[in-house]
Amino acid sequence: EIVLTQSPVTLSLSLGERATLSCRASQSVSSFLAWYQQKPGQAPRLLIYDASNRATGIPARFSGSGSGTDFTLTISSLEPEDFAVYYCHQRSNWPLTFGGGTKVEIK
Amino acid sequence: EVQLLESGGGLVQPGGSLRLSCVASGFTFSNYVMAWVRQAPGKGLEWVSTIAHSADSTYYADSVKGRFTISRDNSKNTLYLQMNSLRVEDTAVYYCAKGFESRSYWESWGQGTLVTVSS
């Protein structure tokens, strides 16, 4: 099973700041990695697929990069609606796995 | 507009069974891979199971293999999850999710149904 380790667990930032979230895989997942956003009481929302492609309707301030074992989700300038939990997810190998999540909170 | 409506959750005793359903609308259900993903209270996301668009392939997390069965009825636009031999650790919100194109990413999600396993 591929383990995805996200860091940091919590990221405390102010509005307008840049957020950099990391996801490291225990073995290569090529580019088969996605990022999701989840707000309290809501279902997750797909943000990024195949490491760097924005899903439909996702603002340009969200970007993804990386391949192999190291991936990054960047939010260029935090908006109020961006404070949430973010999960990475790999589809390279069965079983599919998610990372443990990074909570982006208001500082 | 894509809609996924789960039902069937509830309180069940350890060792019991439940069947979850997810009725889909707003897209051609038979063209898409579908999945169940769960989230224990206050915890992260855990993939449970995936079924191919034609139901000819199914996949399971090790934690549920042999106890849960995913199925679909494309004539009814409905996804199912039969859960047997339930354990306390199966307590979670269960989400139905629609695949993105032909890939096992999840672009649309239901609102979730809560399954509580407790004596």
Shape of chain A: globular
Helix-residue proportion of chain B? under 10%
Q: Largest sheet of chain A, if any?
A: 7 strands, mixed
Beta fraction of chain B: over 45%
| Average pLDDT rating of chain B | 97
Indicate the low-confidence ranges of chain A by residue numbers: none
Helices and strands of chain A: which structural class?
mainly beta
Q: Separation of termini of chain B?
A: 40 Å
The sequence of SSEs of chain B as H and E is: EEEEEEEEEEE
Explain what this protein looks like in three dimensions.
Chain A has strands spanning 4-7, 10-13, 19-25, 33-38, 45-49, 53-54, 62-67, 70-75, 85-90, 97-98, 102-106. Chain A has 107 residues and is mainly beta. In chain A, strands 2, 4, 5, 6, 9, 10 and 11 form a 7-stranded mixed sheet that branches. Chain A starts with a strand and ends with a strand. The model of chain A has no long low-confidence stretch (mean pLDDT 97). Chain B is mainly beta and 119 residues long. Chain B contains no helices and 11 strands. In chain B, strands 2, 4, 5, 6, 9, 10 and 11 form a 7-stranded mixed sheet that branches. A 4-stranded antiparallel sheet of chain B has the order 1-3-8-7, with no helix packed on it. The model of chain B has no long low-confidence stretch (mean pLDDT 97).
